[in-house]
Amino acid sequence: MPFLPTAARVPAARIRRAVLPLALCAGLAAALTGCAEDPDEGTNGVGKLAPDAIEEKAQSAADAAKAVRLAGTLVSKGGTFKLNMRLKDDGASGSVVTKNSTFELLRIGDALYMKADAAFWTHGEGGGAGDGGGQGSGTPSEADSEAADKLQDKYVKVPQDDPSYKQLRGFTDMDLLLDGLIGLHGQVVKGDRDKIGGIRTVKVKGGEDGEGGTLDVALEGTPFPLQFARGGGAGVVVLSEWDKDFPLEAPAPGQTLDYGKQLPRT
């Protein structure tokens, strides 16, 4: 019988006894690692739900909220709007930017005010703020310019009988904006995890590629919707400051102009 080194002559039982603790340690380490990588650890548990249930939770949270900030870009009928609005049930304040203009909106109850610079009120397409421009002149008239100077940086009260009242109020209506912005279309599927504003989220999508919109829902605290990407590249809005109240005060009389039943044409 050939001579074997001492290590080679260690009984198999002793080897098994030595290997067993190592295997247990390795298994424990793997288990602990798995726990640490659990994507739902420390969350509100919404990420474990079916995608349609996640959307329902987000909708319910939004419906029950008292206030929100909505900021982002919307593309509608060929036009692009950049919104930065703080909204609550009885009013709103913020700004709207379009291709050609920027204006501020303030609503307190049914009273709606708009503030813009002189350039907003002046145009050369058949009448401006003073309605004195020549048809198709391309240049604001002297009356237009004078009227626009009076209107610039003033809060102009939007009459409820004016055709623009409903459209402008739509930018300040919390329920209307949320209902129109965070609804998914098509079969709802669950997407990846992400972070919006430092808060962990889970995505739910309308369709596999998000053609019906993609909603990021908070995995921390109340499952509020935190971001909505509209399908077809029609804009992205971020929703923050949920339930954070903010003051709404009517502008001072010296800063307000009331045009009665109809705004100057712009």
Descriptive notes:
A 12-stranded mixed sheet has the order 7-8-9-10-11-1-2-3-4-5-6-12. By secondary structure, it is an alpha+beta fold. The radius of gyration is 30 Å and the shape is elongated. It has helices at 12-36, 51-64, 118-121, 142-151, 164-170, 174-181; strands spanning 67-76, 79-88, 91-97, 102-108, 111-116, 155-157, 188-196, 199-206, 214-218, 225-229, 235-240, 256-258.
Uncertain stretches of 5 or more adjacent residues: 28-35, 124-137
Q: Compute the number of strand runs.
A: 12
Biggest pleated sheet: 12 strands, mixed
Helix and strand composition category: alpha+beta
Q: Rounded to an integer, what's the Rg over CA atoms? A: 30 Å
User: How large is the share of residues in beta strands?
Assistant: 25-35%
Helix content: 25-40%
Strand order in the sheet with the most strands = 7-8-9-10-11-1-2-3-4-5-6-12
Order of helices and strands: HHEEEEEHHEHHEEEEEE
What is the arithmetic mean of pLDDT?
A: 81
**How far is it from the N-terminal to the C-terminal residue, by CA?**
108 Å
Number of helices: 6
Shape annotation: elongated
